Protein: Aminopyrimidine aminohydrolase
Organism: Maribacter litoralis
Amino acid sequence: MQDWYKLAREQTDYILEAIKQQPFIRELMNGTLPSDVFQFYINQDAMYLAEYKKVLATLGVKCPHEDDTQFFLDSATGIIHVENALHQIFLKDNELAHESSPTCELYTSYLTRMVANRSLEEALAAVLPCFTIYKEIGDYILEHQTNKADNQYQDWIDTYGGEEFATSVNNAVVITNKYAANASEEVLQKMKAAFVKASKLEWMFWDSAYTKEAWKI
Ligand SMILES: Cc1ncc(CN)c(N)n1
């Protein structure tokens, strides 16, 4: 298995293309996304990241190589630090909601379960779309938008399209490829399933923000 991510990326291209077509992404790119929808998203994302930070720290501790441990622990503090700063800009004086949406709950519970109960390789694959999909969407928007000077969401776009995030994403891919290179066929199948599911959950997260998803009862 030379480059596991390249293959996983190809096999999930349809999900990435579907994300690019989501109204949330199109309106974010145009700057026309209603601010209540964006607020809902930022609120849910703050709750998502509070759990994701623990997932990354646990994953780091599971890695046998200390450089990999260091990377995930740095990501847990560093990336989350940057994203919290973003939330400060966009949340402003608004109250933080305290109840996770069903999709937010599903995604964080899924990642927590993968890291707690599954192999290191599967957990790495489950966590990776959170890095790679945001990078691809950030780059896509930067490349296609025509309103950089006056898009109210530009700080968000620049965070994920920027160089700093690219370095971090690249490290996560390199680490995942390294463990995949020694994985059995059975583990590789499970890694693929985890990467696909987490990619679908990324699609669902934006969809649930756009509809301001509520609990049915
Ligand atoms: C749901 C979600 N997925 C990914 C990211 C980018 N780390 C994020 N902020 N939120």
